[in-house]
Design goal:
4 strands; SMI1/KNR4-like; about 200 residues; about 10% strand; 6 helices
Length: about 200
């Protein structure tokens, strides 16, 4: 993890420091998912690369995530199976990133609302249900962590649990008591839990 600490914002340095600790304490890669990312990042993006992504997709990335891409890395080490790169093709439907995030509260549908299972599945799995977000990481079993990049929920973390009929739900910050969790809070929560397990 060769990082230029001189150009890091204090918040990113805190995350980077905890990452160094975790990598040191887990040389045998026992933390879930670490066998895949091996505590390595893809290289940081440049300001012009981030700006180009924002212009192409007509979106302004939330500041914490933007700083992470510029100062720590463009995917790699992270919760579950690790962070996806910004331009990862498995990430999100590019033409839907700039559309407004459709949810303000947790969202789910009941099969009882539809005449057939097929109708339910078509509506439930519509890509527009997660428009305005980036898929940050794969949780396994088809579940994903989403970072909302548009609308009133911009900057918050949600879980896409539709693969198990769990809907799309916001992550809450139990530590602070907040009903929402930001990118850096989510990432630090994973680090703290991993360091104490």
């Amino acid at each position: 993890m060769a990082i230029d600490k001189e150009v890091m914002t204090p918040r990113m340095y805190e995350l980077w420091y905890k990452l160094r600790l975790l990598a040191t304490y887990d040389p045998n890669l026992t933390v879930f998912g670490s066998y895949q990312h091996k505590y390595r990042f893809y290289p940081c993006l440049t300001e012009s690369e981030v700006r180009e992504f924002e212009q192409v997709h007509q979106v302004s990335l939330p500041e914490e995530y933007r700083r992470f891409l510029l100062e720590i890395g463009n995917g790699g080490v992270g919760p579950d199976y690790g962070l996806r790169r910004l331009l990862d093709p498995r990430r999100s439907v590019p033409e839907l990133i700039s559309h407004s995030w459709p949810h303000r509260t947790e969202w789910n549908l009941s099969r009882d609302q539809f005449a057939s299972v097929q109708e339910f599945n078509v509506e439930y799995e519509r890509e527009q249900q997660a428009q305005g977000s980036l898929a940050l990481c794969d949780m396994g079993c088809g579940y994903e962590i989403l970072l909302v990049v548009t609308g009133e929920e911009r900057g918050t973390i949600w879980q896409d649990l539709r693969a198990g009929d769990g809907g799309i739900v916001p992550l809450q910050n139990v530590k602070s008591g907040s009903e929402r969790m930001s990118f850096s809070e989510w990432y630090e929560d994973w680090l703290d839990k991993s360091l104490t397990s």
